[in-house]
UniProtKB/TrEMBL annotation:
It holds the Pfam family NTP_transf_3. Residues 15-176 form the MobA-like NTP transferase domain. This is Nucleotidyltransferase family protein. InterPro entries: MobA-like_NTP_Trfase (IPR025877), Nucleotide-diphossugar_trans (IPR029044).
Length: 204
């Protein structure tokens, strides 16, 4: 008899997918709309979060947001518009965290739409390290911090205050490095980004 492996679900943690980028180095093609396995990349990224254990998923949209809403099937997701997406990923991170206010979420698990090599296994490992609102957890690849990253709610205000340009939470995390729990994911995921035309070879 085969026992099906079940993914731990932690309702207190919401998935936040940053999918607002305009793909400047890809000729202005929004990354959310790149085709992966026959569908928009944003759909794949949402599925990864859900299969990894995130019941609630907030998706931050920016470039050609109306087209993403029309073309991508994102049932059950909270779609968050970021009118300032051109100013960098920091604005999307702030928008995503702001959208969780009043939802009861105690932490946010943040992932990027342009990392299709990171699957549900990595999400589940980071989610499994959640403890409480003070949690700071990051996937690691050969010991180096990467995505996804989990931010307990106690850190949201500090992150929002320092998230500028394309730095996201980098400055905030650097100051608190000793307190970050690293979860090695290099054996189950590949943390490449889809940034250039050459990177499109990673898509299926």
């Amino acid at each position: 008899m085969t026992t099906r492996k079940t993914t731990k679900r932690t309702p207190a943690v919401a998935g936040v997918l940053l999918a607002a980028g305009g793909g400047r180095r890809l000729g202005g093609r929004p990354k959310a709309l790149l085709t992966h396995r026959g569908r928009p990349l944003v759909e794949h990224a949402v599925r990864v979060l859900r299969e990894g254990g995130c019941e609630r998923v907030h998706v931050v949209l920016g470039a050609r947001a109306d087209e993403v809403r029309a073309r991508a099937a994102l049932p059950g997701c909270v779609l968050v518009g970021n009118p300032d997406w051109e100013e960098g990923m920091g604005t999307s991170l702030r928008a995503g965290l702001d959208s969780l206010a009043g939802t009861g979420a105690a932490a946010a698990l943040v992932s990027l739409v342009d990392q299709p090599g990171i699957g549900p296994e990595a999400v589940a490992r980071v989610l499994g390290a959640y403890e409480d609102e003070e949690s700071l957890v990051s996937a690691a690849y050969d010991g180096m911090r990467g995505h996804p990253v989990l931010f307990g709610a106690a850190h949201w205000a500090g992150i929002a205050a320092t998230a500028t340009g394309d730095q996201g939470a980098r400055a905030y995390l650097k100051e608190r490095e000793p307190g970050i729990r690293l979860v090695e994911c290099g054996d189950v995921a590949r943390p490449f980004d889809i940034d250039t035309e050459a990177d499109l070879a990673h898509l299926e």
